[in-house]
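Page 47, continued from p. 46.
Same chain as before, 318 aa.
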Amino acid sequence: MDYIDWNLISTIGCFCSKKIITINGKKYRIVDDLGEGGFSTVHLVENTFTKKKYAIKKIMCHSLEDQQIATKEVEYHSILKHPNIIECIDYAEKSSPDSPMNYTSEVYLVLPYYHRGTLAHELELRSKVNDPFSPLDVLNMFQYICEGVKAFHDMKPEPLAHRDLKTANILLDNGYVPIIMDLGSVAPARVKICGAQEAQTLEDFAAERCSMPYRAPELFNVENYCMIDERTDIWSLGCILYALCYYKCPFDDVYERGDSIALAVINANINFPEDERYNEDIKNLILSMLKTNPMERPYIYSVIEHTHDVIKKLQNTV
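Result:
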């Protein structure tokens, strides 16, 4: 990504006063803050000319490594074009290294705004009134998510992994169609680990970028000599399908109690609430993905096929 002159992207005045961001000549008024993470802030904005609403993701980079990750995120947006992956409408970057030892920059991504918010938000609202999705709705939404993940895993010349799939990183459009967002953790899926240093590097990356309740067991304690592949995402998909059924992923309660997520994930003791709404076929689909040994997990093609079979069987019994 070429560096862009600061005149093309600027905040007019202070965010607190005028709250205008200019990106490549287009002005956006900040309406609200949608969220804040360890690496970025997301604003709800309105184009001052068209009045159309967007989300602007502002990534703060405090090192060359941060800058490279943000640049990669923009690149991944440019190559991952799929109806179930969020589109990057525009972007710009301010780069201002004061010195080689004090490198800082900001990257701005203009994204579509989905007023329904995230799947996590929707599930939280439904949990409060005990209004679960129907089994068919669950499976159809999950199928869309899988199709989006397949676009990552199908990438050439080498597959990509999202590495931070979770309900909070899935938006819902007006028809409840899921849209995968946040490409900040995306990386080449297949990583050959040769030695303790490489293992620690991947483990540290996972600790920073992959949310604990949805993180695959092999990323908690990376072995010194192993092969990591795209099936890290399959584990996360199992957690998402569980959450679609029961509002939370299997390890959310462990996280909220402050107990060891790593231990719970590695043991993979999956308990299902007593709910006759979801049959054994759906539970078996979840369990097929939540295998602690990644070599026993299916690839995304098999997950999609299995999901399709469960949908078809369910439709035939209605």
